[in-house]
């Protein structure tokens, strides 16, 4: 019942935008009760185009003759280098197109396109028809490491397919360029988001169950198994993405790591408030963090969570700079990035698997540590 209500809300939210006059502005499109005597009917956006009216492209005789005058500025030449991103900056890794703001649990709101490699991973909640935003829900996140590969957690895959049946490619939807998960995001008249099917999910061979076909709802509830060690999965997209201002790849770390972390951030669509489980953020939120080496984490993380022994395989830990901030449910698979010496954002890890007990503001949280997993990542993706 809860899932049905969520799906309905998603459909309504996407329908609240009148897409016809916005996206067909160059054709002077209008929403009318009828196109008769005015022009031709355009069905590109179906019912979403005009919210029940008809999307009409006017005949030439009905195109307004009064238009805003345009002034032409003579072109000048200059020998100075252009300011802002270069022509190929979108192809470079770790280059944000804006100056990112920093919210997670009690964090700071981001702006659209702040973190262009953050991927919303949506999974089916209703129906058996073609997967789309209306029959899916954003359970977790991932990070774009190449134009056709998303790195996420294995537990994100459990969240995505553990309660559904059928093949992966009809149950997981990756959304690149996402900011608000409940309504379309625009830059001018262009969609920021790209919705792409996931055609394969490869789970790290060291994870406690590495065949997604075996995941069931019981895996979500079973606390006896170790779901934090080797917590990685690679999602292959149906088609390669085209990079731009709102869709870019993050840099991956070198095989050797010197642990001189400086400016570091996390991002996700997780819970807004630890006291209200289920109230996830519609907009991407981010926070400043400190990332610690596994050696440091062995000493302090175990004390905090009453665990003994070495850190779990392929994990480290981190802590928010703001003592009122922490990760929470729904942030699973979100980015953990730090700036490298070239000023580019490098993927240090993923938010591992926060549970309700780990939502306490100011506490350490577990990170799936990417650097020692790079050999496996490269062997699968070829990047």
TrEMBL record:
Annotated Pfam families: Trypsin
Signal peptide annotation: 1-17
Example GO biological process: proteolysis
Region entry Disordered, spans: 66-89
Low complexity bias locations: 66-87
Keywords: Disulfide bond, Signal
Domain of life: Eukaryota
Family as reported in the entry's similarity comment: Belongs to the peptidase S1 family. CLIP subfamily.
Name by which UniProt lists this protein: Peptidase S1 domain-containing protein
